Amino acid sequence: MMQGSPDTECGKKNILIVEDHVMVRRGLMELLNQQPDLTIRAAVASAEQALEVVEQQPIDLAIVDISLGRMDGLELTDILKRKYPDLVVLIFSMHEEQLYGRRARLAGASGFVSKQQAGDALLDAIRQVLAGHLYYHP
Fold first, then answer.
1. What CA–CA distance (Å, rounded) separates 59 from 7?
2. Pairing, β 38-44 against β 2-3
3. For the chain, which residues make up each domain, given as ranges?
4. Residue 76, pLDDT above cutoff 90
5. Which residue spans within 4-130 are E strands per DSSP?
6. What is the CATH number of domain 8-61+87-130?
7. Is the dihedral angle over the CA atoms 72, 113, 27, 15 positive or is it negative?
8. Half-sphere exposure of 73 (CA within 13 A, CB side)
9. Which sign does the torsion angle of CA 55, 91, 117, 129 carry?
10. Looking at residues 39-58, what average pLDDT do you find?
11. Mean pLDDT, rounded, for 87-100
12. CB neighbours (10 Å) of residue 17?
């Protein structure tokens, strides 16, 4: 588990990254650490680790991969939304939205971004869901 900086500045949104591939996790951390309004509280490789983090510290947004191992990202999303209804979840996956978008919505995710889109689309999606909007393609 990689921890973010413990000294969060006021106004920044606390982010949890749940991604089992270390290079993707590090890339997300690098991208998000450059954003003045976001701070990474933790970056973990499993759903179980994510649940531990959310129990221990305030998280505004969880960026969750679907493929995680024993418990997938959709199951994790469902658990997180039942336990922490105000927590925003954004699915970030290599899987196509047309295959998993509806399931992500039913699990409680506020949005879905394909890893093929990444970059600016991910930052736009993060800001949209943190503002209370949904981020799905029609």
1. 14
2. antiparallel
3. 8-61+87-130
4. yes
5. 13-18, 38-44, 61-64, 88-93, 111-114
6. 3.40.50.2300
7. negative
8. 29
9. negative
10. 96
11. 88
12. 27
In the structure, what pLDDT confidence band is assigned to residue 5 with cuts at 50, 70 and 90? very low
Give Cβ neighbours of residue 34 (< 8 Å, ≥ 6 apart).
none
Q: Dump strand ranges (E) for 22-136.
A: 38-44, 61-64, 88-93, 111-114
Which long-range contacts link 91-97 to residues 24+ away (Cβ below 8 Å)? 91/64, 91/65, 91/66, 92/19, 92/28, 92/63, 92/64, 92/65, 92/122, 93/65, 93/66, 93/67, 94/65, 94/66, 94/67, 95/66, 95/67, 97/136, 97/137
Token duo for residue 49: 């680790």
Instruction: Kindly state the tokens that stand for 9.
Output: 């500045």
Higher pLDDT, 121 or 84: 84
Residue 102, both tokens: 């509806």
Provide the pLDDT for residue 58: 94
Q: Which two tokens stand for residue 130?
A: 């943190």
Q: What is the pTM of this model?
A: 0.90
Structure tokens, 94 = 């290599």
